[in-house]
Design brief:
Strand content: 25-35%
Family: Belongs to the universal ribosomal protein uS10 family.
InterPro entries: Ribosomal_uS10_dom, Ribosomal_uS10_dom_sf, Ribosomal_uS10m
Number of strands: 5
Number of helices: 3
CATH superfamily of the domain at 49-156: Ribosomal protein S10
Domain Small ribosomal subunit protein uS10: 54-152
Subcellular location: Mitochondrion
Pfam families: Ribosomal_S10
CATH topology of the domain at 49-156: Alpha-Beta Plaits
Largest sheet: 5 strands, antiparallel
Order of helices and strands: HEHEEEHE
CATH class of the domain at 49-156: Alpha Beta
CATH architecture of the domain at 49-156: 2-Layer Sandwich
Shape: elongated
């Protein structure tokens, strides 16, 4: 008991006094638990299941995009993920902007700028939530410059309880 008071006295607290009844022995308050009480088990959270995960990659350089798609397919095969489709669009999406060379006059002197965006797609099937999160974090960290990644997940869920499958005519 005196050891606890000496610890309190060593702490640099100004203007606060601790009354004697506030410091109690810890062994006096302990009580034995009844034997009938069972330990509380936290509910187990089930992992999500994804029917399909679709990756859409966009980039301005087709060679970099092709290399990155090979990397994504190789990473999926190392994790045991089933890749069903991997393809690219035949033509790039072109966005053209026409500007005047001079702001004030000379309407017939124009310059045209073009931005080409290339696409690649990868479809994967039957993934668990933890595997999907690990895979996506890995490929997102290795995303090269000039590329964008869009992920679409299709999750499997239980049928709601209020929906019941129809009964067969022979059962009625």
């Amino acid at each position: 008991m005196n050891a606890i008071r000496s610890i309190w006295r060593l702490t640099p607290v100004r203007g606060v006094t601790i009354p004697n009844y506030a410091i109690r022995s810890l062994s006096a308050n302990t009580t034995a638990l009844p034997h009938a009480v069972e330990p509380v088990v936290p509910p187990v959270e089930l992992d999500k299941l994804y029917k399909r995960v679709e990756l859409e990659m966009r980039g301005i350089d087709p060679a970099v995009l092709l290399s990155y798609s090979w990397f994504c397919v190789a990473a999926a095969s190392h994790l045991g993920i089933e890749v069903t489709k991997s393809w690219a669009l035949r033509k790039a999406e072109k966005e053209r902007h026409t500007l005047l060379k001079c702001v004030h006059i000379y309407k017939k002197h124009k310059v045209q700028y073009e931005i080409r965006t290339y696409f690649r797609f990868i479809h994967m099937q039957r993934l668990t939530g933890s595997t999907c999160d690990t895979y996506l974090e890995y490929i997102e960290r290795n995303l090269p410059e000039g590329c964008a990644l869009k992920v679409t997940k299709i999750e499997c869920q239980k049928l709601p309880e209020h929906l019941v499958p129809p009964k067969k005519e022979s059962e009625e």
